């Protein structure tokens, strides 16, 4: 938390922490470490990231944990490496190899043609080793227990699927460096699997780095080493709300009203937005319905506003 936040606000330490996760850690591992480093139990994440992956993991700290369910984190961006020439049980490098096929003869034009079919609004079958629940159990747990899991295709949007580089590797493999921008719920491992399968040579993911979740990017991110040296959030609760939501300016009188749970006159803004007082503090997140702009979360209730 920045020193600009007044202790009397009752929100010292609250905010959004963007962690640049290292490979090998689960999202829950990161939450546990951040709880120790920040000396608070009130840390939660806004969506997991595979252990093999690195990059943006969005955490809420203290009162900002209440923001997490309201954040519009519907778009994500990744940098990844896809290996053509082998399919695996997990659609990534951590699984056992199922098939191996020489991919060296696959042309760039053939790759581009299949990538085009995997771009836009598509139906995607999620990776079987995923957190999706099947009969109340996580799919990855069932797979690791030796069961066969078949998941239904889901609609997703892949707005960008760009091949940046190709490397022909000894053994008949082809590595592709790619950038992907997509909707939440899209599996990059599934893109790798489907690209290789359609080309007839198999494919899997060998590297994955998440570069953006909603408005939060690697520019906001801190490593756990950085956090150990200087504990604190990436964005305090005011910066987080104003980064993640549209906002309207309100008067001191309106701030007092909304902090006590009353509603304001609507101004025609759609969706959830932040109400900002003259001092730059976020008082509440509002949503308009009919003739009212009512709070969906009071960031600074009257009991915390001792200014």
From TrEMBL:
InterPro entries (alphabetical): PsdUridine_synth_cat_dom_sf, PsdUridine_synth_N, PUA-like_sf, PUA_sf, tRNA_psdUridine_synth_fam2_C, tRNA_psdUridine_synth_TruB, TruB_C
Domain tRNA pseudouridine synthase II TruB subfamily 2 C-terminal residues, every copy: 245-300
Entry keyword annotation includes Cell cycle: no
Pseudouridine synthase II N-terminal domain mapped to chain residues: 35-188
MF (Gene Ontology): RNA binding; tRNA pseudouridine(55) synthase activity
GO biological process, one term: tRNA pseudouridine synthesis
EC code(s) of this entry: 5.4.99.25
Cited SUPFAM superfamilies: Pseudouridine synthase, PUA domain-like
Domain tRNA pseudouridylate synthase B C-terminal: 189-230
Active site, per annotation: 50
UniProt keyword annotations, A-Z: Isomerase, tRNA processing
Reaction(s) the record says it catalyses: uridine(55) in tRNA = pseudouridine(55) in tRNA
Function: Responsible for synthesis of pseudouridine from uracil-55 in the psi GC loop of transfer RNAs.
Family the entry assigns: Belongs to the pseudouridine synthase TruB family. Type 1 subfamily.
Entry protein name: tRNA pseudouridine synthase B
Gene: truB
């Amino acid at each position: 938390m920045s020193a600009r936040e007044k202790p009397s606000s009752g929100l010292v330490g609250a905010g959004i922490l963007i962690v640049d996760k290292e490979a090998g850690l689960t999202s829950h591992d990161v939450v546990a470490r951040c709880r120790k480093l920040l000396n608070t139990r009130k840390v939660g994440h806004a969506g997991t990231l595979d252990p093999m992956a690195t990059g943006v993991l969005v955490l809420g700290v203290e009162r900002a944990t209440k923001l997490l369910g309201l954040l519009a984190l519907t778009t994500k961006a990744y940098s990844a490496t896809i290996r053509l020439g082998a399919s695996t049980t997990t659609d990534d490098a951590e699984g056992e190899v199922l098939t191996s096929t020489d991919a060296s003869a696959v042309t760039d034009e053939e790759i581009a043609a299949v990538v085009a079919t995997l771009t836009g609004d598509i139906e995607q079958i999620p990776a079987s080793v995923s957190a999706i629940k099947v009969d109340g159990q996580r799919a990855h747990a069932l797979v690791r227990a030796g069961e066969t899991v078949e998941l239904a295709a889901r609609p997703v949007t892949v707005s960008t699927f760009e091949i940046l580089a190709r490397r022909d590797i000894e053994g008949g493999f082809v590595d592709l460096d790619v950038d992907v921008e997509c909707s939440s719920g899209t599996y990059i491992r599934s893109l790798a699997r489907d690209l290789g399968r359609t080309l007839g040579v198999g494919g899997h993911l060998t590297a994955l780095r998440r570069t953006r979740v909603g408005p939060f990017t690697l520019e906001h991110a801190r490593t756990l080493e950085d956090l150990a040296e200087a504990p604190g959030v990436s964005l305090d609760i005011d910066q987080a709300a104003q980064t993640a939501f549209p906002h309207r300016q309100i008067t001191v009188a309106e701030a007092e009203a909304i902090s006590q749970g009353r509603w304001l006159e609507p101004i025609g803004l759609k969706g959830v937005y932040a109400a900002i007082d003259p001092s730059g503090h976020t008082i509440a997140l509002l949503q308009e319905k009919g003739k009212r702009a009512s709070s969906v979360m009071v960031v600074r209730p009257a009991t915390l506003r001792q200014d």
